[in-house]
Write a structure and sequence with these properties.
Low-confidence stretches: 1-22
Number of strands: 33
Helix content: under 10%
Strand content: over 45%
Structural class: mainly beta
Shape: globular
Radius of gyration: 20 Å
């Protein structure tokens, strides 16, 4: 994420009332599975070749590579173009951002077999391996966020077997580990979010065997000792996301919760920078692994989708005044892992996709919700277009949250400010 330093002309201050904010049950159309290499570790979407069409990128354990399928429009994709990461490196979880700030998307991928993060720099849709940084043992997930507040995207890895989180600071597109945080017993996820509202990012980590979520407050040059919040005696925390689920203006934490034979989504409400114990909702399956928050039904608040690995499905949980309830499930391939939310087909509705590790496919689900509010400019979801939505967009930008993305490329950067102006002036 890059911070917005540009200025724009005055915004018209007309207040526009929006219709159609009544809740609808989110519905999805399943596209044909997309074949991958063996054991895909994740999937993301963005415009990698600068043609304004959304492309698909995913990692393959075999052959060791990152693949791009370039978009042909309307949610369709061409043949895979493979970019090697090195023999027996085991590429897995990855993140995309403009790491070198040349206005295109790059890739940072975990090479789990050699405990490193590799940077693949983008040049007009061609990825080149430009750097590797050693991290802890068995890195499980990677997350991009501006942790040090200098305007570029840094990286976090959760290192399961060394019980640490690595903080990789970005300097001109090159990375070095500047902090190694003790993270309990078997950390499996770490994200950045501004929980205390002071403008910098805290680090939140899943302490899996410790059955707790840990928060490291950013002190503007380091991190305070973690504060742990237990998730309960029968579940363990897995994947994480952050979003303002209760609509009170701060970032809450969503956590996938699982153990033998169970699966839940937990919402940990932000209480002055501290997290409450999770309020858990049935995820619609077993062994819940990853979560993503977005307005799936178009009613102005943020819902949650979660992958259930042992049930081979995605659970759709709708939000009603900050409380989640299971709406439906979507059948995936075998062992779905990382879930992603993106506008794949350009209709301003959030679609879903997941990498299916044991069936070697990507599942894409196009959002077909009837009556959904497609008004991206109504960032605060109050049914009114007004200058308060500009304030809400700035907050979304600073927190790298879902409402920042105004041009549908799944990224949060200064181009989204221009897109928000256009969306606002177009009305809804």
């Amino acid at each position: 994420m890059t911070r917005n330093t540009c200025t724009q002309g005055a915004i018209a201050t007309t207040t526009i009332l929006l219709a159609g904010l009544a809740a609808a049950q989110p519905t999805f159309q399943t596209a044909a599975p997309v074949p991958t290499g063996q054991r895909p570790g994740g999937v993301e979407f963005g415009d990698f070749d600068g043609d304004t069409m959304i492309d698909m990128v995913y990692s393959n354990d075999v052959p060791d590579s990152v693949s791009i399928r370039f978009g042909t429009g309307a949610g369709m994709f061409g043949a895979a173009v493979n970019f090697p990461t090195g023999a027996n490196t085991g590429p897995d979880s990855f993140a995309i951002a403009d790491f070198d700030q040349d206005l295109d998307l790059d890739v940072a991928v975990v090479l789990k077999n050699i405990n490193t993060v590799a940077i693949l720099t983008n040049n007009a849709g061609t990825l080149s391996l430009t750097g590797q940084t050693a991290v802890g043992s068995d890195p499980r997930r990677i997350h991009a966020a501006d942790i040090d507040g200098d305007g570029d995207a840094d990286l976090l890895t959760s290192n399961r077997d060394s019980n640490t989180v690595s903080v990789l600071t970005n300097t001109g597109g090159m990375f070095s580990v500047t902090s190694t945080l003790a993270a309990g017993d078997r950390p499996v996820a770490a994200i950045g979010a501004d929980l205390d509202g002071d403008g910098d990012m805290e680090i939140i980590a899943s302490n899996n065997r410790g059955r707790a979520v840990m928060v490291y407050t950013n002190t503007g040059g380091g991190f305070a000792a973690p504060v742990s919040t237990g998730v309960g005696p029968i579940v363990r925390p897995e994947g994480l996301d952050s979003a303002d689920l209760d609509g009170d203006g701060d970032q809450d934490v969503i956590v996938a919760l699982s153990d033998d034979g169970v699966g839940f989504v937990g919402v940990m409400t932000n209480q002055g920078g501290m997290l409450s114990a999770p309020v858990s909702t049935n995820s619609g399956g077993v062994n819940t692994d990853s979560v993503t928050a977005g307005d799936l039904d178009g009613d102005g608040d943020l819902d949650v989708a979660a992958t259930n690995q042992d049930s081979n499905n995605i659970g759709i949980l709708v939000n009603n005044a900050g409380s989640l309830s299971l709406s439906s499930t979507l059948a995936t391939g075998t062992r779905p892992e990382r879930i992603v939310r993106a506008d794949v087909n350009g209709d301003n509705l959030p679609d879903l996709a997941t990498a299916n590790r044991d069936s070697n496919t990507i599942s894409i689900f196009e959002n077909t919700t009837v009556g959904a509010n497609n008004c991206l400019a109504d960032v605060n979801g109050d049914g009114i277009l007004s200058p308060t939505d500009f304030t809400a967009w700035i907050d979304a930008f600073n927190n790298n949250s879902v409402d920042c993305d105004q041009n549908g490329d799944t990224n949060c950067n200064p181009a989204d400010f221009t897109a928000w102006i256009a969306n606002y002036n177009a009305g809804c």
